[in-house]
Amino acid sequence: MSFSAPLRVPVELKGSSELRWFKLANEIWDRGLGLSAPVPEELDGPIELAFHLPGDPKPIRCRGRAEEVVVTYGEEERAERRELRFLDLDDASRARIEAYVQERLGLPE
């Protein structure tokens, strides 16, 4: 089972052009990030991601894909692209993320 932890860090997003976007991550787990605002439609397909875990000087870099999640329920239910799924996260970076989640949630190692 995968746990998620709160996270408040900027994430750099780059698509196929030279343009860069920055979004605030508000959640992390071993397979992706939750964002506080939607990913622009211009960033379709694989996206280059870069971010720092709190207290970790080395950035985590990988490719990801924006996915929709339901943000409003009921009669006005809608989905927005507020989730980034990691596509090629290396094992060392995944271990760093898992350690952060364990520490942040106070889970035993």
Features:
109 residues; mainly beta; Thrombin, subunit H; six-stranded antiparallel β-barrel; 14% helix; globular
Integer-rounded radius of gyration: 14 Å
Q: Termini, distance in Å?
A: 14 Å
Apparent shape: globular
User: Which sequence of strands runs across the widest sheet?
Assistant: 1-2-3-6-5-4
**What is the average per-residue confidence, as pLDDT, rounded to a whole number?**
92
Output the helix-strand order: EEEEEEH
Low-confidence stretches: none
Q: Looking at this structure, what is the CATH superfamily? A: predicted glycosyltransferase like domains
Which fold name fills CATH's third level, the topology?
Thrombin, subunit H
Give the tally of β-strands: 6
CATH architecture: Beta Barrel
Derived from helix and strand composition plus strand pairing, the structural class reads mainly beta
CATH class division: Mainly Beta
Fraction of residues in helix: 10-25%
Main beta-sheet annotation:
6 strands, antiparallel, barrel
**Beta-strand percent range:** over 45%
Count of alpha/pi helices: 1
How many distinct folded domains? 1
Topology record:
Layout lengths: L4 E10 L5 E10 L2 E4 L11 E5 L8 E13 L5 E9 L4 H15 L4
Antiparallel strand pairs: 1-2, 1-4, 2-3, 3-6, 4-5, 5-6
